[in-house]
Write a structure and sequence with these properties.
This protein has 271 residues and is of the alpha+beta class. The protein has five helices and 13 strands. Bound molecules: biotin (BTN).
Length: 271
């Protein structure tokens, strides 16, 4: 394990390994060994990267993306920042916009924790907690150019999205190419995410997370199809996505009804 020399506003080390099972596992081991609040573990490749849905893997091409987990210590339950995953999503969104300004206003949050560009997933967040510790796992597709068949049309990377944007502006010469970069851009992005995350998790600084989130909420004010609870629940709700409640719940006005309904778990259908 090496230490990466970037600024971590949590004042803790940022470790890097070439290959790990999952950064979530390493974060747990670091926690057992007494690593401090804000310790980060990133890697080039995960053999068993995990997605949010049970049993789903999270696969990324080696050394061009950014998978990492940050270990957060909250000795008391009430100290865990409210709606930590949604706030982490906002931090990732702001960091991507800062890293790639041409993508401003194109990055959205699909409730509860997918980061999308042009309706395609660019990053995902997995939050796991055990007594006194939260392991916040974040995977950002930075420069991957090809995705497996089952993800085509559903996934993108920052590089692909920037290149599309530049083509749309007829400026082929500006094409972003991570391989030409003189330093590892993944860690420039990581530093930006850590800075935004540190701010976002500070309740004093960030009282208006809901307002900020609603501005970036995928499909806000539009007709949606929502699957309530588990993916195979068969409970489909059609209606207008109205916003986010104070506890991070999704608010939908179902077709033909007069009152908003709140959902704490479930998934928006993409198309
Ligand atoms: C999702 O959208 O389903 C969540 C994806 C989370 C992926 C990240 S990559 C770093 C960390 N380690 C893992 O095994 N998963 C998370």
């Amino acid at each position: 394990m090496i230490v990466i020399d970037i600024r971590n506003p949590f004042n803790s080390p940022v470790y890097h390994e070439e290959t790990v099972s999952s950064t979530m596992e390493i974060s747990r081991k670091l926690a057992v060994n007494g690593a401090p609040h804000g310790t980060v573990i990133t890697c080039d490749f995960q053999q068993n990267g995990r997605g949010r849905k049970a049993g789903r893997s999270w696969d990324m091409e080696r050394a061009v993306n950014l998978p990492f987990t940050i270990l957060l210590r909250y000795p008391r339950l009430e100290n865990i920042p409210a709606v930590i995953t949604l706030r982490a999503g906002l931090a990732v969104l702001f960091a991507i916009e800062d890293f790639a300004p041409s993508l401003n206003n194109q990055v959205k949050i699909k409730w509860p924790n997918d980061i999308l560009i042009n309706s395609k997933k660019v990053a995902g967040i997995l939050c796991e907690a055990d007594s006194g510790t939260v392991h916040l796992g974040i995977g950002v597709n930075v420069a991957q150019r090809e995705f497996p068949v089952d993800l085509r049309g559903k996934a993108t990377s920052i590089e692909l999205a920037m290149n599309n944007e530049q083509r749309a502006m007829n400026n082929e010469q500006l094409t972003f190419n991570i391989e030409q970069a003189k330093f590892d851009l993944r860690y420039v992005l990581l530093e930006k995410i850590l800075i935004k995350l540190h701010d976002m998790l500070d309740s004093e600084v960030n009282k208006d997370w809901r307002l900020q989130l609603e501005k970036r909420l995928y499909k806000k004010g539009e007709q949606v199809v929502f699957i309530e609870g588990e993916a195979d629940s068969g409970k489909e709700v059609k209606g207008c996505l109205m916003g986010i409640g104070e506890h991070g719940e999704l608010l939908i006005l179902p077709d033909g009804e007069k009152e908003l309904r709140s959902f704490f778990s479930g998934e928006l259908k993409l198309r």
